[in-house]
Each structure stands twice: as structure tokens, then as C-alpha cells.
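Quick one, C-alpha cells below. Sequence please?
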């Protein structure tokens, strides 16, 4: 029984990580528009008001080798709690405090049974579709520049 609960928690963490990444990459104005379509938003209080700082980006040589410091990146983070105690977190690139608040609010809405399906349908789905379309456009542009190299066999080399 405990293993089933732990597996569900891992699956939930994976889904939450995916939606937090999608929300953080979203255009802030678009995210605000989509969250407004969810309906009346619950009141919240700050556990950690939006604050800007920097984080160290790390990489690994060859993807799996020795870690190294790549550089610093400016981020804004915050944590809020809804009236029912649901806690939403956010960490977004840059200095946009309103974007961080929108991500934390969406995170909290996506954790609640009462609001999850509406938030998935009205916020996550349009953002995922837009991100997929943008990736497809980049792939199409790259494919247009593809060069196929081939070697012709010359008859005199026999």
C-alpha cells in the first residue's frame, strides 16, 4: 500500500513539475488572460511575497560528466496560500513579479480537486498548444535549411 502511495506522489510531482515549467515559460500577458477565464479566483495570502534574486545554472560535461557552473540567471519566486490552505509556488525567469504571482496562483488552482479540470482545460491546454505550435514552426524553419549530402560513384574508380 505504501509503495502505491509513493508511486502516486512521484507521478503527481512529475505532473506538477511539467505544469510549473509550462507556466514559467508562458508569455506573462497570455497567462494572465487565461487565468482570468477560470472564473472567480479564490483569495490568497502571501507566505513569501514575490522577490527577485539569482540562481546558479549548472551543467554537466557531455550531459552526464563532471558538473560545472554555467553562470547566473535572474529569477523571481514567490509562495502563496489559498483560503483552503492549498499552497502554490513559482519561480520564473526574469524580474516580473506579476508573472510569478500568476504562476503561483495557477499552481495552487491545479492542485485543488475543485478547480483542476477547469484550470487544465482553460490554462494549461492553450499554453501547451501554443508551445507545441512554436516548436513545430522552429522545426519547419530548420527543416527548410536542411542540406542532403550524397556521394556519386564515378565509373573510373573501378
Amino acid at each position: 500500500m505504501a509503495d502505491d502511495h509513493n508511486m502516486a506522489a512521484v507521478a503527481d510531482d512529475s505532473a506538477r513539475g511539467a505544469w510549473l515549467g509550462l507556466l514559467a515559460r508562458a508569455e506573462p500577458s497570455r497567462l494572465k488572460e487565461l487565468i482570468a477565464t477560470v472564473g472567480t479566483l479564490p483569495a490568497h495570502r502571501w507566505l513569501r511575497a514575490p522577490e527577485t534574486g539569482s540562481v546558479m545554472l549548472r551543467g554537466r560535461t557531455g550531459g552526464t560528466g563532471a558538473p560545472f557552473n554555467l553562470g547566473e540567471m535572474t529569477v523571481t519566486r514567490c509562495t502563496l496560500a489559498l483560503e483552503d490552505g492549498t499552497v502554490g509556488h513559482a519561480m520564473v525567469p526574469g524580474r516580473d513579479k506579476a508573472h510569478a504571482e500568476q504562476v503561483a496562483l495557477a499552481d495552487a488552482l491545479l492542485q485543488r480537486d475543485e478547480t483542476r479540470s477547469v484550470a487544465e482545460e482553460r490554462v494549461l491546454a492553450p499554453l501547451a498548444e501554443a508551445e507545441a505550435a512554436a516548436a513545430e514552426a522552429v522545426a519547419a524553419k530548420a527543416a527548410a535549411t536542411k542540406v542532403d549530402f550524397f556521394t556519386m560513384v564515378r565509373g573510373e574508380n573501378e
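Residues 24 and 131 are 12 Å apart (CA to CA). The chain has a mean pLDDT of 88.
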